[in-house]
From TrEMBL:
Region (Disordered): 1-21
Organism phylogeny: Bacteria, Bacillati, Actinomycetota, Actinomycetes, Pseudonocardiales
Protein name (database record): General stress protein 17M-like domain-containing protein
Family annotation (InterPro entries): GSP17M-like_dom
Highest taxon of source: Bacteria
Transmembrane residue ranges: 75-97, 103-125
One Pfam family this sequence matches: YflT
Domain General stress protein 17M-like residue range list: 27-99
Record's keyword terms, sorted: Membrane, Transmembrane, Transmembrane helix
Keyword Hydrolase part of the UniProt annotation: no
Length: 172
């Protein structure tokens, strides 16, 4: 198996090479990922063989939160800043490989990076014609998180998580 970049894939031993549905018996179901993580952490702290455990997000949703309004000024300003950073990096490379060049490569990289980024951002934003004048942050979340365990240890894991839920566990 190879990665998209052509190198060999580095997977953990025992994990499937291709995407496969999870296996195991349900040992707990939680409303948030933090609760499911806490349950698995409890099992790990209790020396349970956690290699048998899987957290599965069920009822996946793509949540897109609006974080601001876009305007020409904001689009061009953020493009100029990100382009300037890239240009500064290119300028640094030019400086390193052009001895005695002074500060010129830094300025050329900084300015050209900002200008090119602003042009590309302006073309992209202009092409949208105001259909998307807002900026968002996307996140994949689940409606619930099920914790599964291989059958050989599922009953023991259920008992440990039940004690955790009741607050009677020695490791709480």
């Amino acid at each position: 198996m190879t990665t998209p970049f052509g190198g060999p894939a580095r997977t953990a031993p025992g994990l499937p090479q291709l995407p496969t549905p999870p296996t195991g018996w349900p040992i707990g179901s939680y409303a948030t990922y933090a609760e499911a993580q806490r349950a698995v952490d409890h099992l790990a702290d209790s020396d349970f063989p956690v290699r048998d455990v899987t957290i599965v997000g069920v009822d996946l949703m793509l949540v897109e939160r609006v974080i601001g309004r876009l305007s020409w000024g904001r689009v061009l300003g953020s493009a100029a800043l990100s382009g300037a950073w890239l240009g500064l990096f290119v300028g640094m490379l030019l400086f390193l490989f052009t001895p005695g060049s002074g500060i010129g490569p830094f300025l050329v990289g900084l300015i050209s990076g900002a200008v090119f980024a602003m042009v590309f951002a302006a073309v992209g934003y202009g092409a949208s014609r105001g259909r998307r004048d807002f900026q968002t942050a996307s996140q994949m979340v689940a409606g619930r998180y099920d914790v599964l365990c291989e059958p050989r240890n599922a009953e023991q894991a259920r008992e440990m998580l039940a004690r955790l839920a009741m607050g009677t566990s020695p490791n709480t």
